[in-house]
Amino acid sequence: MAWKSALGRRFESPVQPFILSCLLVLVPAAFCPAQPGPLVSWGDRARGGHNPVPGEQYVAVCAGGYHDLALTADGKLVAWGENTRGQCRAPQGGGFTAVAAGLYHNLALRSDGSIIAWGDNSRGQCNVPRQRRFRAMAAGSWHSLAIAADGSLVAWGWNEQGQCRVPPGSNYTHVVAGYSHSVALKADGSLIAWGSRGDGECDVPAGHDFVNVAAGSFHNIALRSNGTLAAWGRNSEGQCKAPPRQDLVSVAAGSLHSLALTRDGSVVAWGHNGYTQCDVPPAVRFVVIAAGGFHSLAIREPRGAQTDAAPGQEKTVPAQLPQRRPAGSPADLVAVIVVVACVLCLLFYIFVTLFGR
After folding, report:
1. What is the CATH code of the structural domain delimited by 33-307?
2. Are 193 and 204 in contact (CB under 8 A)?
3. Distances (CA, A) of 210 to 4, 263, 275
4. Positions of E strands within 76-209
5. I need a surface site. Which of 133, 167, 287, 333 has the fewest CB within 10 A?
6. Which residue, 231, 192, 227, 194, is CA-closest to 211?
7. Domain ranges of the chain
8. DSSP assignment of 294-353, as one string?
Protein backbone atom coordinates (compact mmCIF):
# COMPACT_ATOMS: atom_id res chain seq x y z
CA MET A 1 0.00 0.00 0.00
CA ALA A 2 1.36 3.45 -0.91
CA TRP A 3 1.19 6.34 1.54
CA LYS A 4 1.14 10.02 0.67
CA SER A 5 2.65 12.88 2.71
CA ALA A 6 1.27 16.38 3.08
CA LEU A 7 3.69 17.41 0.33
CA GLY A 8 2.07 14.98 -2.08
CA ARG A 9 5.01 12.58 -2.21
CA ARG A 10 4.27 8.83 -2.31
CA PHE A 11 5.88 6.39 0.13
CA GLU A 12 5.80 2.65 0.69
CA SER A 13 5.60 2.90 4.48
CA PRO A 14 3.61 5.10 6.90
CA VAL A 15 6.84 5.76 8.81
CA GLN A 16 8.61 7.49 5.91
CA PRO A 17 6.35 10.57 5.67
CA PHE A 18 6.53 10.97 9.44
CA ILE A 19 10.33 10.97 9.31
CA LEU A 20 10.27 13.56 6.53
CA SER A 21 7.90 15.73 8.57
CA CYS A 22 10.29 15.56 11.56
CA LEU A 23 13.20 16.62 9.37
CA LEU A 24 11.20 19.55 8.00
CA VAL A 25 10.45 20.70 11.56
CA LEU A 26 14.18 20.78 12.30
CA VAL A 27 15.00 23.30 9.56
CA PRO A 28 15.63 26.55 11.50
CA ALA A 29 14.67 30.02 10.30
CA ALA A 30 18.35 31.02 10.47
CA PHE A 31 18.86 29.30 7.13
CA CYS A 32 16.48 31.82 5.52
CA PRO A 33 18.09 35.22 6.22
CA ALA A 34 16.30 38.43 5.30
CA GLN A 35 17.33 39.96 2.00
CA PRO A 36 19.70 42.92 2.41
CA GLY A 37 18.57 46.30 1.14
CA PRO A 38 19.53 49.97 0.75
CA LEU A 39 19.19 52.58 3.50
CA VAL A 40 16.84 55.54 3.76
CA SER A 41 17.34 58.37 6.29
CA TRP A 42 15.35 61.41 7.36
CA GLY A 43 15.58 64.13 10.02
CA ASP A 44 18.49 66.32 11.19
CA ARG A 45 21.15 66.74 8.50
CA ALA A 46 23.15 69.54 10.12
CA ARG A 47 25.97 67.41 11.56
CA GLY A 48 27.58 65.19 8.95
CA GLY A 49 24.53 64.83 6.72
CA HIS A 50 23.37 61.42 7.98
CA ASN A 51 23.45 60.34 4.37
CA PRO A 52 24.00 56.57 3.96
CA VAL A 53 26.79 55.44 1.67
CA PRO A 54 25.06 54.74 -1.67
CA GLY A 55 25.31 51.45 -3.50
CA GLU A 56 25.68 49.28 -0.39
CA GLN A 57 23.32 46.51 0.66
CA TYR A 58 22.77 46.54 4.43
CA VAL A 59 21.46 43.94 6.85
CA ALA A 60 21.66 45.96 10.09
CA VAL A 61 21.85 49.64 11.04
CA CYS A 62 22.05 51.67 14.25
CA ALA A 63 22.00 55.40 14.91
CA GLY A 64 24.16 57.29 17.40
CA GLY A 65 23.83 60.86 18.60
CA TYR A 66 24.94 62.46 15.32
CA HIS A 67 26.42 59.53 13.41
CA ASP A 68 25.34 56.17 12.03
CA LEU A 69 26.80 52.68 11.76
CA ALA A 70 25.66 49.91 9.43
CA LEU A 71 26.51 46.29 8.67
CA THR A 72 26.73 45.18 5.04
CA ALA A 73 25.64 41.85 3.62
CA ASP A 74 29.27 40.65 3.49
CA GLY A 75 29.90 41.37 7.17
CA LYS A 76 31.70 44.71 6.80
CA LEU A 77 31.14 47.99 8.66
CA VAL A 78 30.24 51.39 7.22
CA ALA A 79 29.99 54.58 9.32
CA TRP A 80 29.13 58.17 8.46
CA GLY A 81 28.09 61.47 10.07
CA GLU A 82 29.82 63.54 12.74
CA ASN A 83 33.34 62.24 13.43
CA THR A 84 34.58 64.53 16.22
CA ARG A 85 35.54 61.59 18.47
CA GLY A 86 36.62 59.14 15.75
CA GLN A 87 33.25 57.40 15.91
CA CYS A 88 33.14 57.05 12.12
CA ARG A 89 36.55 55.40 11.80
CA ALA A 90 35.07 51.92 11.53
CA PRO A 91 37.42 48.91 11.65
CA GLN A 92 38.26 47.38 8.29
CA GLY A 93 37.64 43.81 7.23
CA GLY A 94 34.68 41.48 7.55
CA GLY A 95 33.40 38.89 9.99
CA PHE A 96 31.05 41.23 11.88
CA THR A 97 27.53 40.12 12.81
CA ALA A 98 25.96 42.99 14.80
CA VAL A 99 26.44 46.71 15.52
CA ALA A 100 25.54 49.21 18.26
CA ALA A 101 25.97 53.00 18.37
CA GLY A 102 26.17 55.24 21.44
CA LEU A 103 26.37 59.01 21.69
CA TYR A 104 29.98 59.20 20.43
CA HIS A 105 31.16 55.57 20.43
CA ASN A 106 30.37 52.29 18.69
CA LEU A 107 30.45 48.57 19.31
CA ALA A 108 30.65 45.75 16.78
CA LEU A 109 30.23 42.03 17.42
CA ARG A 110 32.44 39.57 15.55
CA SER A 111 31.44 36.08 14.47
CA ASP A 112 33.73 34.60 17.15
CA GLY A 113 31.76 36.38 19.91
CA SER A 114 34.32 39.11 20.62
CA ILE A 115 33.41 42.82 20.67
CA ILE A 116 35.46 45.68 19.26
CA ALA A 117 34.84 49.31 20.31
CA TRP A 118 35.98 52.69 19.02
CA GLY A 119 35.23 56.40 19.33
CA ASP A 120 34.98 58.42 22.54
CA ASN A 121 36.42 56.55 25.52
CA SER A 122 36.37 59.36 28.09
CA ARG A 123 34.30 57.26 30.53
CA GLY A 124 35.78 53.86 29.68
CA GLN A 125 32.85 52.97 27.42
CA CYS A 126 35.23 51.39 24.90
CA ASN A 127 37.12 49.25 27.43
CA VAL A 128 35.53 45.95 26.41
CA PRO A 129 36.24 43.09 28.86
CA ARG A 130 38.82 40.78 27.31
CA GLN A 131 38.75 37.00 27.20
CA ARG A 132 34.96 37.04 27.08
CA ARG A 133 32.53 35.92 24.39
CA PHE A 134 29.23 37.67 23.82
CA ARG A 135 25.97 37.15 21.96
CA ALA A 136 24.44 40.67 22.02
CA MET A 137 25.37 44.23 23.02
CA ALA A 138 24.11 47.80 23.43
CA ALA A 139 25.68 51.26 23.59
CA GLY A 140 24.37 54.10 25.76
CA SER A 141 25.55 57.68 25.97
CA TRP A 142 28.70 56.88 27.97
CA HIS A 143 28.28 53.23 28.96
CA SER A 144 28.12 49.88 27.20
CA LEU A 145 26.29 46.63 27.86
CA ALA A 146 26.57 43.07 26.56
CA ILE A 147 25.05 39.64 27.03
CA ALA A 148 27.75 37.05 27.58
CA ALA A 149 27.73 33.63 25.96
CA ASP A 150 26.21 32.15 29.12
CA GLY A 151 23.30 34.64 29.07
CA SER A 152 24.58 36.85 31.89
CA LEU A 153 24.96 40.63 31.66
CA VAL A 154 28.22 42.60 31.51
CA ALA A 155 28.60 46.40 31.65
CA TRP A 156 31.42 48.94 31.49
CA GLY A 157 31.85 52.71 31.24
CA TRP A 158 30.12 55.56 33.10
CA ASN A 159 28.32 54.32 36.21
CA GLU A 160 27.35 57.50 38.07
CA GLN A 161 23.64 56.54 38.09
CA GLY A 162 24.20 52.83 38.56
CA GLN A 163 23.57 52.04 34.91
CA CYS A 164 26.44 49.53 34.95
CA ARG A 165 25.31 47.68 38.09
CA VAL A 166 23.83 44.78 36.16
CA PRO A 167 21.37 42.42 37.84
CA PRO A 168 22.42 38.81 38.45
CA GLY A 169 21.21 35.83 36.46
CA SER A 170 21.89 34.22 33.11
CA ASN A 171 18.54 34.25 31.36
CA TYR A 172 18.79 37.46 29.35
CA THR A 173 18.04 37.60 25.62
CA HIS A 174 18.15 41.31 24.71
CA VAL A 175 19.65 44.45 26.24
CA VAL A 176 19.38 48.20 25.45
CA ALA A 177 20.97 51.34 26.89
CA GLY A 178 19.68 54.90 27.31
CA TYR A 179 21.40 58.07 28.52
CA SER A 180 21.99 56.83 32.06
CA HIS A 181 19.76 53.77 32.38
CA SER A 182 19.69 50.22 31.06
CA VAL A 183 16.92 47.73 30.22
CA ALA A 184 17.08 43.99 29.60
CA LEU A 185 14.61 41.42 28.31
CA LYS A 186 14.54 38.04 30.03
CA ALA A 187 13.91 34.66 28.46
CA ASP A 188 10.53 34.50 30.21
CA GLY A 189 9.36 37.66 28.40
CA SER A 190 9.66 40.02 31.37
CA LEU A 191 11.64 43.27 31.59
CA ILE A 192 14.11 44.61 34.14
CA ALA A 193 15.71 48.08 34.28
CA TRP A 194 18.38 49.78 36.38
CA GLY A 195 20.19 53.12 36.56
CA SER A 196 18.67 56.61 36.59
CA ARG A 197 15.04 56.80 37.73
CA GLY A 198 14.45 60.56 37.57
CA ASP A 199 11.91 60.29 34.75
CA GLY A 200 10.50 56.88 35.57
CA GLU A 201 12.66 55.23 32.91
CA CYS A 202 13.22 52.20 35.15
CA ASP A 203 9.54 51.70 36.03
CA VAL A 204 9.08 48.76 33.66
CA PRO A 205 5.57 47.44 33.02
CA ALA A 206 4.62 44.05 34.45
CA GLY A 207 4.06 41.01 32.28
CA HIS A 208 5.81 38.13 30.57
CA ASP A 209 4.73 38.78 27.00
CA PHE A 210 7.44 41.17 25.78
CA VAL A 211 9.54 40.25 22.74
CA ASN A 212 11.56 43.41 22.02
CA VAL A 213 12.52 46.68 23.71
CA ALA A 214 14.21 49.96 22.72
CA ALA A 215 15.70 52.70 24.91
CA GLY A 216 15.74 56.41 24.12
CA SER A 217 17.57 59.02 26.17
CA PHE A 218 15.05 58.97 29.03
CA HIS A 219 12.19 56.79 27.75
CA ASN A 220 11.59 53.22 26.61
CA ILE A 221 9.36 51.41 24.13
CA ALA A 222 8.58 47.68 24.44
CA LEU A 223 6.83 45.36 22.01
CA ARG A 224 4.41 42.69 23.21
CA SER A 225 3.86 39.35 21.50
CA ASN A 226 0.40 40.48 20.36
CA GLY A 227 1.85 43.38 18.34
CA THR A 228 0.97 46.14 20.82
CA LEU A 229 3.32 48.58 22.57
CA ALA A 230 4.10 49.73 26.09
CA ALA A 231 5.97 52.99 26.72
CA TRP A 232 7.27 54.65 29.87
CA GLY A 233 9.68 57.35 31.05
CA ARG A 234 9.96 60.98 30.02
CA ASN A 235 7.08 62.09 27.80
CA SER A 236 7.93 65.77 27.31
CA GLU A 237 7.53 65.55 23.51
CA GLY A 238 4.91 62.80 23.34
CA GLN A 239 7.57 60.14 22.75
CA CYS A 240 5.67 57.75 25.03
CA LYS A 241 2.29 58.24 23.34
CA ALA A 242 2.49 54.95 21.48
CA PRO A 243 -0.12 54.36 18.77
CA PRO A 244 -2.89 51.90 19.73
CA ARG A 245 -2.04 49.37 17.03
CA GLN A 246 -1.78 45.58 17.04
CA ASP A 247 0.28 45.02 13.89
CA LEU A 248 3.73 46.08 15.08
CA VAL A 249 6.83 43.88 14.78
CA SER A 250 9.76 46.08 15.87
CA VAL A 251 10.57 49.28 17.79
CA ALA A 252 13.28 51.95 17.93
CA ALA A 253 13.79 54.95 20.23
CA GLY A 254 15.70 58.16 19.60
CA SER A 255 16.51 61.03 21.89
CA LEU A 256 12.96 62.45 21.97
CA HIS A 257 11.10 60.40 19.35
CA SER A 258 10.03 56.81 18.75
CA LEU A 259 9.54 54.51 15.75
CA ALA A 260 7.67 51.26 15.16
CA LEU A 261 7.70 48.92 12.17
CA THR A 262 4.36 47.44 11.10
CA ARG A 263 3.67 44.01 9.69
CA ASP A 264 3.19 45.41 6.19
CA GLY A 265 6.57 47.18 6.20
CA SER A 266 5.41 50.73 6.90
CA VAL A 267 6.88 52.83 9.74
CA VAL A 268 4.97 54.77 12.40
CA ALA A 269 6.71 57.67 14.16
CA TRP A 270 5.75 59.93 17.06
CA GLY A 271 7.30 62.40 19.50
CA HIS A 272 9.56 65.38 18.84
CA ASN A 273 9.58 66.34 15.14
CA GLY A 274 11.55 69.58 15.17
CA TYR A 275 14.05 68.11 12.70
CA THR A 276 11.48 66.13 10.66
CA GLN A 277 12.72 62.92 12.27
CA CYS A 278 9.11 61.71 12.34
CA ASP A 279 8.35 62.52 8.69
CA VAL A 280 8.61 58.95 7.39
CA PRO A 281 9.02 58.66 3.60
CA PRO A 282 5.67 57.52 2.15
CA ALA A 283 4.97 54.51 -0.07
CA VAL A 284 8.13 52.64 0.99
CA ARG A 285 8.36 49.28 2.71
CA PHE A 286 11.06 48.76 5.33
CA VAL A 287 12.52 45.73 7.12
CA VAL A 288 14.77 47.31 9.81
CA ILE A 289 14.45 50.62 11.68
CA ALA A 290 16.77 52.77 13.85
CA ALA A 291 16.42 56.11 15.67
CA GLY A 292 19.25 58.49 16.56
CA GLY A 293 19.55 61.79 18.37
CA PHE A 294 17.31 63.77 16.00
CA HIS A 295 17.17 61.59 12.90
CA SER A 296 15.82 58.23 11.77
CA LEU A 297 17.08 55.42 9.54
CA ALA A 298 15.59 52.32 7.94
CA ILE A 299 16.64 49.53 5.63
CA ARG A 300 14.32 49.52 2.66
CA GLU A 301 12.85 46.32 1.37
CA PRO A 302 14.55 45.34 -1.91
CA ARG A 303 12.49 46.52 -4.86
CA GLY A 304 12.24 43.02 -6.28
CA ALA A 305 10.72 41.72 -3.06
CA GLN A 306 8.01 44.36 -3.08
CA THR A 307 6.29 42.65 -6.00
CA ASP A 308 5.64 39.48 -3.96
CA ALA A 309 2.32 40.82 -2.67
CA ALA A 310 -0.55 41.70 -4.96
CA PRO A 311 -1.76 45.32 -5.03
CA GLY A 312 -3.75 46.06 -1.90
CA GLN A 313 -2.59 42.84 -0.22
CA GLU A 314 -0.68 42.99 3.05
CA LYS A 315 2.92 41.79 2.92
CA THR A 316 4.22 40.39 6.19
CA VAL A 317 7.55 41.69 7.51
CA PRO A 318 9.41 39.43 9.99
CA ALA A 319 9.91 40.78 13.48
CA GLN A 320 13.23 42.52 14.03
CA LEU A 321 14.64 40.55 16.94
CA PRO A 322 18.39 40.96 17.05
CA GLN A 323 19.23 38.38 19.66
CA ARG A 324 19.62 34.63 19.70
CA ARG A 325 17.75 32.61 22.29
CA PRO A 326 19.89 31.37 25.18
CA ALA A 327 21.05 27.78 25.28
CA GLY A 328 18.90 25.55 27.45
CA SER A 329 15.64 27.33 26.60
CA PRO A 330 12.36 25.36 26.18
CA ALA A 331 12.82 25.58 22.42
CA ASP A 332 16.12 23.71 22.74
CA LEU A 333 14.39 20.95 24.74
CA VAL A 334 11.72 20.61 22.07
CA ALA A 335 14.40 20.38 19.38
CA VAL A 336 16.20 17.59 21.28
CA ILE A 337 12.94 15.66 21.68
CA VAL A 338 12.20 15.96 17.98
CA VAL A 339 15.70 14.78 17.04
CA VAL A 340 15.41 11.75 19.34
CA ALA A 341 11.97 10.95 17.88
CA CYS A 342 13.37 11.15 14.35
CA VAL A 343 16.23 8.80 15.21
CA LEU A 344 13.88 6.28 16.83
CA CYS A 345 11.52 6.40 13.85
CA LEU A 346 14.42 5.87 11.47
CA LEU A 347 15.64 2.85 13.46
CA PHE A 348 12.11 1.44 13.55
CA TYR A 349 11.77 1.85 9.79
CA ILE A 350 15.09 0.07 9.19
CA PHE A 351 14.03 -2.78 11.50
CA VAL A 352 10.66 -3.19 9.75
CA THR A 353 12.33 -3.06 6.33
CA LEU A 354 14.91 -5.72 7.20
CA PHE A 355 12.96 -8.13 9.42
CA GLY A 356 9.27 -7.38 8.90
CA ARG A 357 8.84 -9.14 5.54
Report:
1. 2.130.10.30
2. yes
3. 40, 17, 31
4. 77-81, 96-101, 105-110, 115-119, 134-139, 143-148, 153-157, 172-177, 181-186, 191-195
5. 333
6. 227
7. 3-26+333-355, 33-307
8. SEEEEEEPPGGGGGSSPTT-----------PPPTT-HHHHHHHHHHHHHHHHHHHHHHHH
